[in-house]
Every structure is written in structure tokens, then in C-alpha cells.
């Protein structure tokens, strides 16, 4: 399995049907509103597989991957977390004044898209707005007490206690203009400091951007970046094959081989921080009993499901967070053992099983319906009958947050590539995300959060995962590999490990 996780494939096809392909691409560009070959050559068109919700970097949708993708290109954070390493973005340097105070010195000469200079007042206004918002990211910033302006180029962040994940968490905090925050324009017509300027945004349809020629980190190598929402897989892959789009990602596992057969298209896969999770509502009977939850895990042959449904696109999970993530544990899997599952159900008082339901979002996930059907078939064999509930994305989210469900299946991603992003936000007693509460777990994760030594922090994060694995508040069947495909004129791109693609360094040939 580890070989699969580290596997990276590259498939290139020779240039065929030259004039015909040029004709098709040109026609697609014309249909897309392009203004000729020059415009086509300087425009990168991206097929987005999920709904594009917002361009507000601090709004309720900021934890959504499509919103994060747009924010990445329009804004900058103080620091970035890249491959487990913290690098400076708008912050040129930083230092720990003490265990609860971190001082940031801003990069000189950075301007917003409207030409106004970046100052510490913009940083404070942005962070204050984000920290005050009731978003899924709020737990990341719970220990922050104050953002303090020292001078125009210096800010300090004061926390209530030592916070080992502070810098990693700040990589999710994008900086906008104080003037726009005060006027409200940041919600729909934001100006950032990022590599691209927003030209047009239509929620659920498209986002068009133009290059920021004054970008502090070097202007992009092409003129326009256009995101087009194409949630239907067949339509998205057809658009890639015909040249209507240049690149897409999160490819359906059962169509990878088909895409490898496209002329003038490159396909790559690689490790990711994305995973599948089955949450069980621990506040509802009989799922409040650990024996019932463990029985459900033992009842399913996830190895066969992985092989038959996902192939190279997934590997069996070894922990509640994927292996490429900082702090990931390596734990022994729950063996497929239907007899043990029946025994545990009987011990819990359900020798004949029980009935329940499972929900998922209609906007979710590769192979979601056949996956659910396979799992439910296995549960039926041990007496557990489950009603399937596919819900519209908005209704699903409302019900999820209200704990109005029995079981819930979805994919997740550790965007910061730090285990605390998942462990600290979702499974503490205070989180109230799935009715799970274990005081020992809370103590361990709190200790990990305060730990400043990376090795000791990693050990504590791994201990927290051991507790989760044993309690089985849910089941973590698979880690998903990242996949992407792009036409041969695109270079400098690869599969996004967090499903938040970065097109800032792309070149068009």
C-alpha cells in the first residue's frame, strides 16, 4: 500500500490530428468568448469539479476548497505552509517574543490591486474579521486574544497560551484591505495583494481573473486565469479532451485510464492530504456505544472495496489523518471480521441488529453512491439496515452542523497539512461535530496544541489518534490520491495534494 501512496504516474500522448485539434481548440475558445489566438495563448482555463461559492476570504465558505482556491490566487497570508515548512508571504520575518506573543514584520513595497499600500492596519482588520466569524475555521484561532499594531510594518499576535500550530493555522488567514472590510466590498468585489486580480465572479458558474503585473513575488507568466465550474464529470473530461479547458483535477477514479488516452494531455497522480470518513452520531442510540461503532467497522471489507472501486486512486487509511500530513500516526487497521461484528452487536444488546440512516451531499465525492451501496450491503449481512439519504449540498450542510443525522459520509482534506487541523477542530467535546466527547482525548490534544517542540508535538498528536481509533466515533476507510490532467501547452503544474490547486507558477507553451 505504501508503494501505491508514493506512486506517481505520468502519461504523455504524441501530438496527433494537428490541424483538426487546432480547429477544435480554436472553436472552443471562440465559444468561450476568447478574442483570437493571442487571447487563447495567454489564458489558462480551469475546469472546477465542485461548486464555486464565494470570493470572500473571511466568509462562511472559506473552508470550502473552491473558495480557498480562489483566495489563494487573489490574496496572500502572512505565512504559507508548504510541504510541512513555514515560508514567509506578506510577513518578511517573524519572531517569538515569548511563548504567547509572536511579532511579524511585513514585507516592504507590497500593494493591493487598487494600488494602495499594505500596512499593519490591513492585517489587523483582516485577522479580526476572520477570528470573529462563525466559520468552520474558527477553532484554529480560538487561542488568539489580540492582534496588536506596533507600527505600520509590524504586528504582534497575542495568544492565551502557547500555540504550536499558530503559524500553520495563519496560513489559512488571507489578508484583505481594511477599507474594503469597512465598506463591505470585500464580500463580492475584493482587492487583494495576490498574483491575480478579480475581473468577474458569478457564484456557481465562473471566476475570471487577470494577472497582477505588480505582484510582489513576480508577475504571472500568462495574462488571464479563468475558472469554469463543471461539476459533471463527463462534461468536464469532454471539455479537457476538446481543448475547451486546459486543466482539471480530482479526476474520477474509474476514468483515469480513459483520460490517459486523450491526445495532447498529461495525467499525473500522487500522494494527498484527502481522505474518506464515515461519521457516526455518537449522541444517538445505538451509535453512542463504542461496541456498536467498532462492530460497524469490522463488518466491512474495505480492502476489497478499495481494490474494486478505487484501484490506484485510494489506499487503506492507517490513521484519522492521511500519512503525508505532519503528525499522522500509523495504526493497525480494523480487520474484516463479520463474526466479531455480530459478537460486538450482541454484547451491546443488538443481537438482531438495528435500523438507521446515512446521509451525504449530492456535491460529494468520487464513487460516492457505489461506495455507500457496498458498505450498506456489508452492514446488512450483520443485521444493520440503513436508509440512504442523498441531500442537496446546502441541506446536507445544515443538517450536518445541526447534528440532524445518524451516519454521515464525506471526504475531507487537511488543508494545512498538519494533523491538528482535523484533530483539534472536529473531535473535541467543545467541537460538537458528531456528538463525541472524550475528556482524555481533549487533554491530549490540548497538550499537543500548546507544545512548541515539533517532535514532542507530533508524539502527542499521534497519541490523540490512538484514542480516536479505539473509540471509533467514526470510521476512516481510505486515503485518496491526488490526480490532475492538463493539456500539453501547460507546464509547471501538478496534482494538488490538498485539492486546492495553485496556478500561480504555471507557464503556457
From TrEMBL:
Q: Which Pfam families did the record assign?
A: SBP_bac_5
Task: Spell out the SUPFAM superfamilies in the cross-references.
Answer: Periplasmic binding protein-like II
Q: Is-annotated flag, keyword Signal?
A: yes
Q: What keyword terms does UniProt attach to this protein?
A: Signal, Transport
Which top-rank group of organisms is this from? Bacteria
Its cellular-component GO annotations read:
ATP-binding cassette (ABC) transporter complex; periplasmic space
CDD domains, per the entry: PBP2_NikA_DppA_OppA_like
Q: Where is the Solute-binding protein family domain?
A: 85-431
Q: Which family does it belong to?
A: Belongs to the bacterial solute-binding protein 5 family.
What PANTHER family does the record point to? OLIGOPEPTIDE-BINDING PROTEIN APPA (PTHR30290:SF9), PERIPLASMIC BINDING COMPONENT OF ABC TRANSPORTER (PTHR30290)
What name is this protein filed under?
Answer: ABC transporter substrate-binding protein
The organism encoding this protein is Micromonospora craniellae
Amino acid at each position: 500500500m505504501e508503494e501505491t501512496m508514493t506512486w506517481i504516474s505520468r502519461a504523455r500522448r504524441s501530438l496527433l490530428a494537428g490541424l483538426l485539434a487546432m480547429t477544435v481548440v480554436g472553436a472552443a475558445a471562440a465559444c468561450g468568448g476568447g478574442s483570437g489566438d493571442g487571447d487563447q495563448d495567454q489564458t489558462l482555463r480551469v475546469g472546477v469539479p465542485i461548486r464555486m461559492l464565494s470570493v470572500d476570504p473571511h466568509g462562511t465558505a472559506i473552508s470550502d476548497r473552491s473558495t480557498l482556491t480562489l483566495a489563494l490566487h487573489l490574496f496572500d497570508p502572512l505565512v504559507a505552509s508548504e510541504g510541512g515548512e513555514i515560508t514567509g508571504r506578506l510577513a518578511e520575518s517573524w519572531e517569538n517574543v515569548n511563548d504567547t506573543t509572536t511579532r511579524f514584520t511585513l514585507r516592504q513595497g507590497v500593494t493591493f490591486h487598487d494600488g494602495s499600500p499594505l500596512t499593519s492596519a490591513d492585517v489587523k482588520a483582516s485577522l479580526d474579521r476572520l477570528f470573529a466569524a462563525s466559520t468552520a475555521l474558527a477553532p484554529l484561532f480560538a487561542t488568539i486574544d489580540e492582534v496588536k499594531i506596533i507600527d505600520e510594518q509590524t504586528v504582534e499576535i497575542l495568544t492565551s497560551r502557547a500555540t504550536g500550530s499558530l503559524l500553520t493555522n495563519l496560513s489559512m488567514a488571507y489578508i484583505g484591505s481594511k477599507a474594503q472590510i469597512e465598506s463591505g466590498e470585500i464580500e463580492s468585489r475584493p482587492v487583494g495583494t495576490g498574483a491575480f486580480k478579480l475581473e468577474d465572479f458569478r457564484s456557481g458558474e465562473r471566476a475570471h481573473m487577470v494577472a497582477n503585473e505588480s505582484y510582489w513575488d513576480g508577475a504571472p507568466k500568462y495574462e488571464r486565469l479563468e475558472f469554469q465550474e463543471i461539476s459533471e464529470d463527463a462534461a468536464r473530461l469532454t471539455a479537457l479532451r476538446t481543448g475547451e479547458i486546459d486543466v482539471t483535477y480530482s479526476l474520477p477514479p474509474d476514468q483515469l485510464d480513459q483520460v490517459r488516452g486523450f491526445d495532447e494531455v498529461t495525467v499525473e497522480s500522487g500522494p494527498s492530504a484527502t481522505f474518506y470518513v464515515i461519521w457516526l452520531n455518537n449522541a444517538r442510540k445505538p451509535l453512542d456505544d463504542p461496541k456498536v461503532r467498532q462492530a460497524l467497522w469490522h463488518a466491512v471489507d474495505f480492502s476489497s472495496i478499495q481494490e474494486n472501486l478505487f484501484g490506484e486512486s485510494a489506499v487503506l487509511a492507517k490513521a484519522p489523518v492521511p500519512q503525508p500530513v505532519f503528525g499522522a500516526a500509523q495504526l493497525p487497521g480494523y480487520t474484516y471480521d463479520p463474526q466479531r461484528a455480530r459478537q460486538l452487536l450482541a454484547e451491546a444488546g443488538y443481537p438482531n441488529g438495528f435500523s438507521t440512516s446515512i446521509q451525504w451531499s449530492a456535491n460529494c465525492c468520487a464513487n460516492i453512491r457505489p461506495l455507500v451501496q457496498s458498505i450498506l450491503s456489508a452492514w446488512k449481512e450483520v443485521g444493520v439496515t440503513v436508509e440512504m439519504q442523498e441531500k442537496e449540498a446546502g441541506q446536507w450542510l445544515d443538517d450536518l452542523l445541526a447534528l440532524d443525522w445518524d451516519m454521515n459520509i464525506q471526504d475531507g482534506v487537511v488543508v494545512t497539512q498538519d494533523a491538528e487541523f482535523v484533530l483539534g477542530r472536529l473531535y473535541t467535546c467543545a467541537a460538537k461535530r458528531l456528538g463525541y466527547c472524550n475528556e482524555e482525548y481533549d487533554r491530549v490534544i490540548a497538550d499537543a496544541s500548546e507544545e512548541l517542540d515539533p517532535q514532542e508535538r507530533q508524539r502527542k498528536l499521534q497519541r490523540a489518534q490512538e484514542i480516536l481509533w479505539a473509540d471509533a466515533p467514526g470510521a476512516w476507510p481510505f486515503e485518496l490520491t491526488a490526480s490532475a490532467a492538463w493539456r500539453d501547452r501547460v507546464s509547471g503544474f501538478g496534482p494538488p495534494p490538498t485539492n486546492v490547486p495553485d496556478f500561480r507558477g504555471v507557464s503556457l507553451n
